[in-house]
Amino acid sequence: MSKIKRKIYLIFWIAIAFGSPLIPISIYFNNNWYSLFHSYSMGMVFGLCAFVYFLNALVLSCRIRFLDRIFGHDRIMIFHGWLASIALCFALTHVYFKWIFFIDTSLQTFLGLIGLSLLFIIMSITTLFMIDSIFHNIKIVAQLKRFIGRIKVFDYSNLKLIHNITAFAMLAIMAHVYIASSTQETIVRMVLVQVWAGLVGLLYLYHKLARPLVAQAKGFIVHSVTKHTKDIVEIVLSNPKRKTLSHKAGQFGYFRFFSKTCGNAEHPFTFSSAPGNKLSITVKNLGDYTGKLGDLSTETHAAVDGPYGIFTPQQNNKPKVFIAGGIGITPFLSTCAHWDASGLMTQTTLIWSCQTQEELFAHDIFNTYAKKYDTFFYVPITTRQPNPYSKFNRINRNLLESYLPQDHKNLEIFYCGPNSLRHAVFSSCRSLGITPSQIHYEKFSF
Ligand SMILES: Cc1cc2nc3c(=O)[nH]c(=O)nc-3n(C[C@H](O)[C@H](O)[C@H](O)COP(=O)(O)OP(=O)(O)OC[C@H]3O[C@@H](n4cnc5c(N)ncnc54)[C@H](O)[C@@H]3O)c2cc1C
Fold this sequence. Notes:
Elements: H1 3-19, H2 22-28, H3 39-60, H4 65-71, H5 73-101, H6 107-130, H7 139-150, H8 156-163, H9 166-178, H10 181-184, H11 187-217, E1 220-227, E2 232-238, E3 252-257, E4 266-270, E5 279-284, E6 301-308, E7 320-325, H12 330-342, E8 348-354, H13 363-372, E9 376-382, H14 397-403, E10 412-416, H15 419-431, E11 439-442
Parallel strand pairs: 7-8, 7-10, 8-9, 10-11
Antiparallel strand pairs: 1-2, 1-6, 2-5, 3-4, 3-6
C-alpha cells in the first residue's frame, strides 16, 4: 500500500475512532441542542464519549484483520491502549459532572461505578505490570514490575487472564448506559445502545470463543523440535489435513500448543519459514513459557491464528538493510529464504547483532546466501565476545557508514529486536540523514 493511501486511511480511521460519539450525542440531544453546554448535559456528553471509546477500544482488541493490514498489529494494540485510557479520563469526568448535581444510589449508578472501578484496576495493572509504558522510566515502578514478574501468579499469561475481566466491566457499563433514564426516554436511544453494544459484544465473543476453535480446526501438529542452542529452539509444524496458512515472509501468528509441558496459553511468534514451506517458528527462551517449548513432543496438537503484521519487505529497486537484534532475526530468516527461492535480486544488507557467536545460530545459512548472491551482504556482530567477523562489536553510526550503500535516498531499513537497540539504530540512521519514513520496525511486545 502506498504511503499516501496509508495516510488517508490513517486519518479516516482516527476520525472514525474519535468522532463516533457524535452519533449518540446527536441522537440524545436531538431537538435539545441548546442544553448541550449546560454542565449537567456535559456529564452526559462525557459519559457517551467514554462509552463509545471503551467500545471502540474493545473492537480494536479483537484482531480486526483489515485494520491490521493497514496499520500493523503492534500499532493497533498501542492505539487500543491509548483509546481505553482516554475513555477512562472521559468516564471520570462524567462521574465528576454527575456528582456536582447529586449523588444517587440507584442500581444504574452502582453498575457504572462497578464497571468503572474494574476498568480502572485492570488498566492500572496492565500499564504497570504487563506492557512497557512511560511509567517504567520511573525507577521504582520498573523495579516493582520486575519484582511482580518474579511472582508466578503475575506472569504474563495470568495478567492476560486478568485483562479479560474487561469484558465483565464492559457488561456493567453497557447495562449502566442502557438503564439510564436518558436512554430509556426514547426507543431510538434504546435501540442504538442495544445494537451498538450487541454488535461489539458479538465480535468480542467471536474473537475469544470462535477464533480459537477455528485456529485449532486447521489441524497443525508438531513435526519436529530442534534445539539450535541451549536457549533457541525451532519448532516445525505439519498439517495432516494438508491445509496451509498463506502468510507473507515477515508475518507472525498466535500459537497455542495443547500440551501439559507448556500449558495452553497463546503466544505470538514470527513464522521463521518461507511461505509455502512447512510452517516453523524459532523461539528464544525469554521466560516461563518459551523456556518449556524445547520439551514439546512431536505430534502435539497446535492452534495457529494468523497471519498478522505488515513487517513484510518486498523485492524491488530500493536497496534493503535488515537489522536484527538476537531473536529479532526470525522475520529475516523467513524473508531471505523466500527471496532465495525466487532469486535474490534486491541489494540486501543483513546486520545481525547477538551477544555471543553461539547465538548466531543461522550464521551458515546467511553465509551461504552471501556466497551465492553478489547482491547479499551479511554482517554478523557479537557484542559480548570479540567479533571474529568484523572490526565492529556494536551497531552504531560508524558501522552503518561502513556497510550501508552510499546513496541513502532510496534505502529501506527494516529493524526487529530489543527496544534499547532500536533507539540506538534509529538515532544512528537519523544522524546519517535517513528519514523515519525509510525505517520500518516490529516490536516483539505490545
Ligand atoms: C509480533 C511478535 C512476534 C514475536 N516473534 C517471536 C519470535 O519469532 N521468536 C521469539 O522467540 N519470540 C518472539 N516474540 C516474543 C514472544 O512472544 C515472547 O518472548 C514470549 O511470548 C514470552 O513468553 P514467556 O512466558 O516465555 O515470557 P514472559 O517472561 O512471560 O514474558 C516476557 C515478555 O514477552 C511478552 N509476552 C509474553 N507473553 C506474551 C503473549 N502471550 N502475548 C504477547 N506478548 C507476550 C511480554 O512483553 C512479556 O513482558 C514475538 C512477540 C511478538 C509480539
